[in-house]
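Hi everyone, sorry if this is the wrong subforum. Our group has a chain we'd like a structural model of before ordering constructs, and none of us has done structure prediction before. Sequence below.
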Amino acid sequence: MMSNLFSIFDPSTNIMNISFNLISTLLGMLFLPYSFWLIPNRHYLIWNIILNKLHNEFKTLLKNNYFNGSTFIFISLFSFIMFNNFLGLFPYIFTSTSHLTLSLSISLPLWLAFMLYGWINNMQHMFTHMIPQGTPNILMPFMVLIETISNIIRPMTLAVRLTANMIAGHLLMTLLSSTGTSMSNYLIIMLILIQIILLILESAVAIIQSYVIAILSTLYSSEVN
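Answer:
Right subforum, don't worry. Here is the predicted structure as tokens:
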């Protein structure tokens, strides 16, 4: 039962032994036709308001480290993850963000870039950041060890947070839908209503998780300067 349950996350689209599942990560571009960027419309204005809000918030988090275009990478990260989270809610579309292959491919390069930039350009700041102000001398070695471990596991925590949240909702919806064949008509109607509520909640999770990943990445970037 468990192997069948988790098989919904298995890559299964192969043509000539080449996996085309991760190509679904690019499907978001198909929902934004060229006219979307040229002709202002209601959807464009709403999306533009969201991007402006994110730009202002990321700019505030970066503080003195902000320069023109520095928020673009985090806004792009938010958009990319959100599109892929939403695509996973559609039937027969591979949920790429439910795999550590994609989530680690996002978090690990970002973390490595932040760490390399910080240790090369601001080594003294990186050392002082390991020991909070006012730490007793006897606790300093332990604080260095704790801060080092927390920095090392950051990319894994970002990846696992995104993957686990995507998997949890999909598993719950799969479990509920698999029991519908043995229910009466009234229970099936209730099950459909529950599925609709879960779909709404999963849509909220898709937005929240992309926002959380973008915010945490911005905070990690501000710490190395």
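For your construct planning: Residues 86 and 204 are 10 Å apart (CA to CA). The chain has nine helices and two strands.
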